[in-house]
Design goal:
The complex is a heterodimer.
Chain A (H helix, E strand, L loop, with lengths): L6 E7 L10 E6 L2 E6 L12 E5 L2 E6 L1 H14 L12
Antiparallel strand pairs in A: 1-2, 1-4, 2-3, 4-5
Chain B lengths: L9 H18 L3 E7 H9 L2 H4 L4 E8 L7 H12 L3 E6 L13 H6 L4 E4 L2 H10 L4 E6 L6 H13 L5 E5 L5 H8 L8 E4 L1 H7 L5 H5 L4 E4 L4 H16 L5 E3 L11 H10 E8 L3 E10 L8 H4 L15 H5 L23 H4 L4 H8 L10
Parallel strand pairs in B: 1-2, 1-7, 3-4, 3-5, 5-6, 7-8, 8-9
Antiparallel strand pairs in B: 10-11
Helix pairs in contact in B: 1-11, 2-16, 7-12
Classes of the chains: A alpha+beta, B alpha/beta.
The complex binds iron/sulfur cluster.
Chain lengths: 89, 372
């Protein structure tokens, strides 16, 4: 029941402050479009952001900055090793 | 795909594996690490990491697969509700095939005429309730902190829209109480805890602080890609090497220190803490979530006057011990013989995240751990 892979937002309906209308992001899953509720997402996404989704509800939106920091922390783990190697994205 | 491929990069994986091996070799004793989350269990097997990890690392699966920890009494209650006249059930996929105490499943019930739909989201269940106003739509609520915000939001929608034929039977659970209960047992001899990624998205990394104190456990929050898991294991090994017990976060792109305040507020609106029965672990005080009185009309238990029966585990099934990390599936005499994913006896073989089904699918390619 748990999906670990983040999904890309291609459209947003509703607004962060208006709880009375639907709050929905349309995400792309291998070319298929699926609606996701935004009622409990931690911060409001923009088109192009990625969402972590559980049981039809987004629980987290990620931006490129957060992903880059995470990767940087990983690379620091072995930076002290004898032959540091640059990794391309 | 973005935010995925980077974290599966084989070059980065290789570097991290070498760093991990160097760290564990310097410790020169076995490190017993529990991975709590069923999705971690599957990810470690599926990615092939389990076979590549340094020999010092012993990974033990914990009680984090939501289907697996659902008690036989609760499964029997779901079956009972499916048999009541005028009801319809909507369930998450894996629940469909979990046998109750007498071996019967919801799939069997449906074959004999019960109305049961498999859904992906509780909102699908609410939609089915709207389309079938003459039936009472029952949603068996299972799962941890990642799932409860979705259930709470759906109940709130039902309340706003006055949909009266939708009820939830809550067996929802919270992660910390069983960990406190389990990890307080020194005979498990655990050094560290690989904390569940998306439960932590909701509760925040700080939630594990109580485990670092009295239990002196190294706690590291991990994502689900191979580099995520390796980064977490390196941080953990370094803590163990330096005799530290801290909470660290190796999944910064999805988890912060405080968690998701909006989701937590949504859950607090609908639910309150309650005692909860876990398969294999018994009743753990305050480890469950019950629907608040204010929303009682969406609570299946009072509306249908349900009493959860006391039941026994299926004969011979060791799921209870596997969930506590005290044994592994190959030690179950039924494993792979009478119990397989096609014909499961216990829930750990049914769920795709269950420890028994992971061992069945991938176990032969991996080295054994623990007492094997
Ligand atoms: S192999 Fe089957 S019977 Fe044995 S513990 Fe696992 S689920 Fe239970």
């Amino acid at each position: 029941m748990c999906l670990a892979v983040p999904m890309k937002v291609i459209e947003i309906r509703g607004s962060a402050d208006d709880f009375l209308t639907e709050q929905i992001a349309v995400v792309d899953v291998d070319g298929i479009h699926r609606e996701t509720r935004l009622d409990v997402v931690d911060h409001w996404p923009e088109v192009g952001d990625y969402l972590i989704i559980h049981a039809g509800f987004a629980i987290h939106s990620l931006n490129p900055h957060e992903a880059a920091i995470n990767l940087e922390l990983m690379r620091e783990m072995f930076a002290k090793m004898p032959q540091p190697v640059a990794i391309e994205n | 795909m973005k935010y995925v491929d980077e974290f599966r990069d084989p070059v980065l994986t290789g570097h991290l594996l070498r760093e991990l091996a160097a760290t564990t070799a310097a410790i020169a004793r076995p490190l017993r690490i529990m991975e709590v989350c069923g999705t971690h269990t599957m990810a470690i097997f599926r990615s092939g990491l389990r076979a590549l990890l340094p020999p010092e690392i012993e990974l033990i699966s914990g009680p984090g697969c939501p289907i697996c920890v659902t008690s036989a009494g609760h499964i029997d209650t779901f079956l009972h509700m499916a048999d009541l006249p005028g009801t319809r059930l909507a369930v998450f996929g894996d629940l469909f095939r979990v046998p109750g105490s007498n071996g019967r499943t919801l799939a069997d019930a449906r074959a004999r005429g019960a109305k049961i739909d498999v859904v992906y989201s509780p909102t699908d269940a609410l939609e089915l309730a709207r389309q079938n106003p003459d039936e009472l739509m029952i949603f068996p609520g299972i799962g941890f902190e990642t799932t409860t915000p979705a259930i709470a939001a759906t109940i709130l929608t039902a309340s706003h829209q006055n949909i009266d034929n939708f009820v939830v039977f809550s067996t929802h659970k919270t992660m910390l109480p069983p960990l406190m209960a389990l990890l307080g047992d020194p005979s498990l001899g655990l050094d560290g805890l690989l904390c569940p990624g998306h439960v932590s998205t909701i509760i925040g990394a700080s939630a594990y602080l109580p485990l670092t104190g009295a239990n002196h456990l190294a706690c590291v929050v991990s994502g689900f890609e191979p580099t995520d898991i390796l980064q977490a294991l390196i941080l953990m090994a370094r803590q163990i090497k330096e005799n530290r017990a801290e909470v660290e976060n190796a999944y910064t792109r999805a988890v912060n220190w405080e968690g998701n305040a909006r989701a937590k507020a949504m859950v607090d609106t609908i639910f309150e803490p309650a005692d909860m029965e876990w398969r294999g672990l018994g009743v753990i005080p305050g480890s469950g979530l019950a629907i608040k009185e204010r929303f009682a009309r969406f609570d299946a238990q009072p509306r249908l006057s349900l009493v959860v029966p006391n039941t026994k585990e299926p004969a011979g099934c060791l799921c209870g011990q596997i969930l506590k990390g005290i044994t592994t599936p190959p030690h179950c005499p039924l494993f792979g013989r009478r119990c397989t994913p096609a014909g499961p006896i216990g829930p750990c073989m049914v769920s795709s995240e269950g420890t028994c089904s992971a061992w069945f699918a991938y176990g032969n390619e991996s080295r054994g751990t623990q007492d094997s």
